[in-house]
Amino acid sequence: MASYLHDTPENAASDGDWLDRVSRIRTAHLQRCKDRGHRFSMLTSYDAMTARIFDEAGIEVLLIGDSAGNTVFGYPSTVPVTLEELIPLTRAVAGSARRAMVVTDLPFGTYEESPAQAVRSAVRLMKEGGAHAVKMEGGAYYAEHVRAMTQAGVAVMAHIGYTPQSENTLGGHRVQGRDDAAQRLLDDALALEEAGAFSVLIEMTAEPAVRAAEEALRVPTVGIGAGGSTTGQVLVWQDMLGLGEGRTPRFVKKYADLRGVVSQAAGAYRKDVLDGAFPAAEHVFDQ
Questions:
Q1: 137 among annotated binding-site residues
Q2: Active site residue 203
Q3: Active-site position among 60, 203, 207, 214
Q4: How remote is the C-alpha of 77 from its chain's centroid?
Q5: Gap between the Cα atoms of 272 and 67, Å rounded
Q6: What is the full per-residue pLDDT of the chain (287 aa) written as tens digits?
Q7: What angle do CA 30, 35, 41 make, to 5 degrees?
Q8: Which residues take part in binding 3-methyl-2-oxobutanoate (predicted)?
């Protein structure tokens, strides 16, 4: 039988650093953040090395996002990403993270047909990938999908607002939740919560609508381009560390310029190779 000592909110410290003392982040801890007015952090991760680094840095949730389509596979959007592509990425992250909760996206085409299809896809991510939970895009229409997955034992993070898998029907990258759409967003959030979602991620949405959802929902919200009222915040790690090229989205804060660092290092390596400076004597085996 598994030991859950120190894993439940009741066993966590009651002072301000209680979250740092949790040995494995679970949905109950994220709910406690919401209940106590605390916040939590979330980053994407697609490999063992970044998973270990982010985990050691204390990031509470690691997301194997279908953003891997852009950042790993070089696709023009998230739409082409398959379940078969995300399973090994999930396995790499889940096998390396010791404390963080691991959540994986349900890719486009793996859940829309029926609640049964959603359950099958989610179960594969958990059994073959080791995910602790899945994230699914879509509003109230998919409430029964959420209900079916939670009844099957799958923890589900809902995703509303701007949903990248639906960019073709949304008309591109457009801010959601403005004017009359704010009420629809709130209705979606409440329906997904009622169906059993343990959290609702809201992307690229006007802050007043997000604030209304955070206040109305019992479960925690996670924001990306959704202002500061959400319980949690998530960013794509390559954006956060400045690996991307071109225009940076308004909602992204760069905490480093890794693109510049990596480019400079690669150029220095090439110069050393061409000049014969690498490998030097200290890099050569004598026998």
A1: yes
A2: yes
A3: 203
A4: 16
A5: 35
A6: 343 334 444 444 455 589 999 999 999 999 999 999 999 999 999 999 999 999 999 999 999 999 999 999 999 999 999 999 999 999 999 999 999 999 999 999 999 999 999 999 999 999 999 999 999 999 999 999 999 999 999 999 999 999 999 877 876 778 989 999 999 999 999 999 999 999 999 999 999 999 999 999 999 999 999 999 999 999 999 999 999 888 888 899 999 999 999 999 999 999 999 999 999 999 999 87
A7: 35
A8: 66-67, 105, 135
